[in-house]
């Protein structure tokens, strides 16, 4: 009978139906769930933008480096163009021997400038460095015909004639030259001839390779028809193999990730024009590329740093949550336990809690209820 009364009293005691979750536990759970939700959302957002961020970084790096490589090459050629401009100004007033000496001084050792000369309006070479081709006709050469009309820059071409006249090149591998020419005018501004220089394209290959190596990219000089005429790594991919080369004739600025003939993925960009100042256009494009995973290690380090930072923030949040619970929530739990003891008839008084207004009001209310019970009992 006694056990039945105890059981019935437990069933009727409201405290037997209290939730097991405490206020402190609810707050800690809320903070933890919120922190995890934020971390998961940030992780999902970062993962979704990962490739986009990587491509953006690659695009900026490849584009700036490719533009720098193109400008460096064009600057060297522009310096030759300025020298040719000065020669065209000086020749009308110079004796033939003086003009020849000036050209030989400009040519130097001939390793870079293969030929410099001056032809009259009939196409006969009147003066040239080392007297090469003097007295011969160049009237049918593109550099002469175009030079009569204005400044001209000729794309790379083979020259069997100069290969035979110089020690450079062989019949199987003739000289590959670039042409620069411009008209010579007299005091009345009438065209009286053409000055021209032929630049050994081997120099351009070496210059491009050195510049690309310094900038940390692979660089490809592209002809107007999309053919690779020189590359820093020796490769010669074709337009049939790469979309970026097929877009070369349009001259549009293009960039993107693509699998190259070596089977590797690269991010490449095309500079639509290789030029500087008033240098006539050769019609070239420049393509630069970087391996597609070039920045992945750096971004992985960044992701690791962000993960470490997020872990630190969660730890700090947990610490402050614990301090908050101890200062502001635990007193309310203590008041709850004390209210049970008062309800069971114990004559105990709650301590004064001044942490929050609510804790102070509950503490004061319990103290007044206990005072009233004491007075009622005395009466």
Automatic annotation (TrEMBL):
Residues 106-288 form the Cache domain. It is a multi-pass membrane protein. The keyword Nucleus does not apply. It is found in: Cell membrane. Keywords: Cell membrane, Membrane, Transmembrane, Transmembrane helix. GO terms for cellular component: plasma membrane. InterPro entries: dCache_1 (IPR033479). The keyword Cell membrane applies. The chain crosses the membrane at residues 21-46, 306-329. This is Cache domain-containing protein. It comes from Roseivivax sediminis. The lineage of its organism: Bacteria, Pseudomonadati, Pseudomonadota, Alphaproteobacteria, Rhodobacterales.
